[in-house]
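It would be a great kindness if you could assist me with a short task in structural biology. The matter concerns a single protein, recorded as an amino acid sequence and a row of backbone structure tokens. Could you please explain, in whatever detail you think fit, how the structure tokens follow from the sequence? Thank you for your consideration; the sequence and its tokens are set out here:
___
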Amino acid sequence: MLTPTKNTTLYTILIQRSTIRYNPIQSYAKARATMADEIYSKVSSKLEAEWYPYHENEWFTHTDICGHFQWFDPKIRSAVSRKLYHDYKEISEPKLEKNNKAYRIVDKTLDEIEWENADIDDVYKLKMPYDPTTNVGFPFESLICIPPGALIIIAGASNAGKTTWLLNMLVRNMDDFEDVVYFTSELSAVNLKRRLNPFEEWYELRNGDGKPKFKVFDRESNYHDAIYPKYSNGLVFIDYLDVNNEAEYFKMKPYLKRIKRSMRRGVAVVALQKNPGVDDAFGGKNLRSDADLYIAMDFGQIKIIKAKDWHTENPNLKKYKFDIEFNGSTFTNIQGIYEE
């Protein structure tokens, strides 16, 4: 048997591992059909595990699938066609809907909302960053409603201040939650201490026993595994959520969904990367849908893209400008931007 190499195609591997044994009795047609069934089985399993879960609520094509997995062999591409046809045409409850050459995953799941006994006052008065030198903060703080289980997204350009925003929210709210957790994929212990030292002038970062009021963990993926159930009722910061390359941006929405579903009565605050001057993070506009609060951050400016619920005045699309001082730790000169 040949040893598969890095560039070995799925089809080649199947040939190498096939249980088919040629003999004078077995017909070529039967052998070919058996091989096609093996390829189909492998393709079907891969789509179920690595494509369908990441492409809910969107349309995709045969070309999208084959391009993503780099399937160029005609036999594998034929197996993809067979799988798509089976899932929208040949089963009693189709998994797919087809429109011309595009497919969509059928989702019949229903999460009933028990609204009759809901407490409309069951919201968090979550504190946003402010300027401790003047006690001036971002005015939208008093307008928004943050319910238990909320997801807050801070979509910022590189070095625009996402980490500063998250750390300010952490120190301002660390006394209001039993568990406060900060996941970072970038900051070392030295970097983090340098960032936090300036806060000690205005905040008490430790409990009476001398231990920090929050925990910091080094992690860069599968945050929902670490959150649920231990920190599901806490205040969780993720700095920041990313994927390996542009080809995996489609995974961002499922990742955010898993993070939100891992929260019970807690709140997750997630930093995402975006290009300067645009509102949407890498992964597209559909990332907004699961957010209770979505803020776009550029150099010296933020914009409230989405506040799902508010008290009286609508904060959506409001803009604010600011400076960042004190070793990159503090927002200062906070002002509203009023456009004519």
Remarks:
- The mean pLDDT is 90.
- The longest strand covers residues 330-337.
- The longest helix spans residues 28-50.
